[in-house]
């Protein structure tokens, strides 16, 4: 009883009088503030003795331990889904009732939890309290920071039980697993095209409406979604946040890095059903399949020559215009495509990224390797 009294007496007269000096967040008790500050310091004093994962609070460790035991004592009386914590069950039940108790006073959007509201409000204020200690990039939530840090560490803790492929987030794993099941739950009412994610369908609809709400402040180019804009802006800034841990080469997107890493591993996941040839990307497979069908959808309006890819047609047009927009910064020689420039620059650097698996001989251009292998 005396301990409860002491705790009560420590309660401040104001609702939240303990303020975080790092981000300004206010807490009711000094003990809550101490726990919150671990977000900034990175301190995680509670460790799991089974897997080594660490936590800021003992209660979080307690919940985590149930992942190892499989214990889920809280079940939903409507759908039977089970949960580790009662708070998770409470949040889940709101999905059935549709109740959203927490409303944003700036845009009237409502949320199931106060935490979701807090995170949403940061989109209005621009607050990003979680910073990466390696590159300084800031994020709205600690979970977004954790995901980002895997870019630096290369950690991929989620693996597919069907093919063994590993992923940095559980969400990407779930999307990948649909490639095995063929499940595409979201369909476009206008053209019938189906998608694995609702966000992909939402972006696709903008192709019908022509809506491109995201604008580059440097060149004015417009985009269907914010992620495409973010990737585009890296062309202006030169930012390449995804690096290969084997050769150090950097890329604008994680997907480009993944494709590059297949050069080191030799992994070719995409197979042609006509001839059995394998490819490292689905895009390369699609281009190859046109050699079987003879399909050349892109024609030059000047000479009538046809191509399997729009990019090939675009490059071809430069033969008519004489345009050579890609210049070597070492010798000044100009080229019609960035790929020709890249191949040329290897003469200066001596880089030979293509090697024969049989004799080890290396080449600067893939076509030279193919000739050699014949």
TrEMBL record:
Keywords from the UniProt entry: DNA-binding, Metal-binding, Nucleus, Repeat, Transcription, Transcription regulation, Zinc, Zinc-finger
SMART domains named in the record: ZnF_C2H2
Presence of keyword Thylakoid: no
Annotated C2H2-type domain residues: 18-45, 46-73, 74-101, 102-129, 130-157, 158-185, 186-213, 214-241, 242-269, 270-297, 298-325, 326-353, 354-374
Major localization listed first in the record, in broad terms: nucleus
InterPro entries found in the cross-reference section: Znf_C2H2_sf (IPR036236), Znf_C2H2_type (IPR013087)
GO MF terms, alphabetically ordered: DNA-binding transcription factor activity, RNA polymerase II-specific; RNA polymerase II cis-regulatory region sequence-specific DNA binding; zinc ion binding
Annotated family: Belongs to the krueppel C2H2-type zinc-finger protein family.
Protein name: Gastrula zinc finger protein XlCGF17.1-like
Species whose genome carries this gene: Salvelinus namaycush (Lake trout)
Organism ancestry: Eukaryota, Metazoa, Chordata, Craniata, Vertebrata
Name of the encoding gene: LOC120032550
